Amino acid sequence: MQESLPEDLKIEVRRRSAFKAARNDPRPTPPPEFNIRRMNRSSVAGTSGDSSEDLSLASDWSGASEDEIFAGFEDLGQLDGRIIKQEPIYSGDRQVGHACSLALDLLDRYGRLKQEFKDHPVKKGSGVWRAGLDGDDIFLIENLEIDRQYRRCGLGSRLVRAMLETVESGTLYYTAIVRPSALNGNELQCESAAGRTTTELTSEDISKSFWRSLGFRRIGSSSWFGFASDAKHPSRHLSRADDYELPDVPLGRLDLRLQNDLIKALTSGDNDYAEVLSRLFDDVVKDDPRWKLTDADGNTVLHFATTKIRPISVQWILSRTTELLQQRNNDGETPLDALLAKLENIRTTDYYNLEAEDVSDYFSGFSDAAVSCLMSLNGSNEGTDDEWQRLKYGCTCGRCISGFLSPRMRSALEYQAEILSDQLLEDISNGELWVANNSSCLYLFSHRLRNKLKASQRMRKGLVALLGHIAACLQRNMIPSEHNVEMILRGAKSSSSERFLQRGGSVEAVATMLFRWAMESDELAGNPSHLRLEAFDAKICQVPACRNDHEFGFVSGMCGYEGLSPIKY
Prior knowledge:
The protein is α+β, with helices and mostly antiparallel strands. Helix content is 41%, strand content 11%. A hairpin with a 6-residue loop joins strand 8 (217-218) and strand 9.
């Protein structure tokens, strides 16, 4: 029998400091920034009032422990969440828990909603999140627990609303995000829909209905739901009935024994999988419906081959039928989509135990097997060297030099070389003043080299001239490697750069300085407060965007220089 709510109730909303949280909570992981509880206060001495709902906010508990704070209170429910500032995820940063899942599922390394949830034909879902989450803080709801006897009494809704009011008072715009399957802490760990029990599926449906009733809407086709604080956001005008829902489990299912044989062969190797495919499908015509049989997640035999990066098997399947190229799994992915998603994960993320670390700056290209799969899925088994390089290094614009230096990054480096040269020419006749004024540029140089620059105007002019040679290299559509810059230098009639190089300077030192300067001025990888001319922004918009546009660490490493990571401001 369901129990009604006590008349005398109190909502307690607390913002806890990291220091007090670590002191009061014995768990190894820190609690969220915000914690909300709804309490029966009828048993607390000294309380009074007829109001059925009393909201109170406390930020200082004078060192009291959690047990002392809540002594005598009956705990009816709890909601945990945290504010996440949108900022770059730096190489070496490790994410754990719900924040890790959120970052991996929804965000790129710059804190933006992944592009696939904005414009993919299926993964964009309802399309209301096309503008993304860009610029908003994120309020991540990690856990909502209501005592069983008080469920379905409106308590959960009041808890969530009270929390959102508190968050709204502390931030201009935010997006609250939750994964409904985690309602009441009962997060589903099953690997596929086929592994879920009827009870689990029903529980998740109830959870989704609850969050939708509060205005939360599915973000793309993901398992996450969002609530935008901006009343003008398109998601606030999407009805519950029109919210995107994931497709049903497909009807044409692979025989379980056959599926196990395929998975076993996949694990053994490419040739083994191709052999099993040949045995099962060699006499099957290209439009036979058996090709389109799937597992519980909607994956075909071609999905299996691409996500396991089995180029021989991919070529074998496509030599028999091309019907599977456009077939989508339950995530809305074609075989090519599924492979690209896997490769993006390989490029950006390394996993260790329950932690995930961003490794974007250490990317050095995809394997030849992966490139071969990409070539086959794109309809070409023998592409040009340029095509191979662009697939290998993740180029999406089709115009990257050597496969990794995009037109936009090249323009940014040229522009910053010009800006930096103008800055370094100021007060160049006064060595001590020059070094002091340009310390933000020269900090990567050794102390000995800075002293030499302080003492020699010819060296200072040589450094500026070397920046010009690097820019000339870029203007000729060449990567600014040490070899190419020196080739440009040798072709010059005369250059003061030789003096700089002879006295201990290097192309690497100047090129690294330029890459660092350009990265710090980048709208995503750097500090947005850096000023950029409108003319430069207009020029950038005229060339196609690319996956490699902001990857200064990766590109500088590919040019042979020190790998860079964005500075934490």
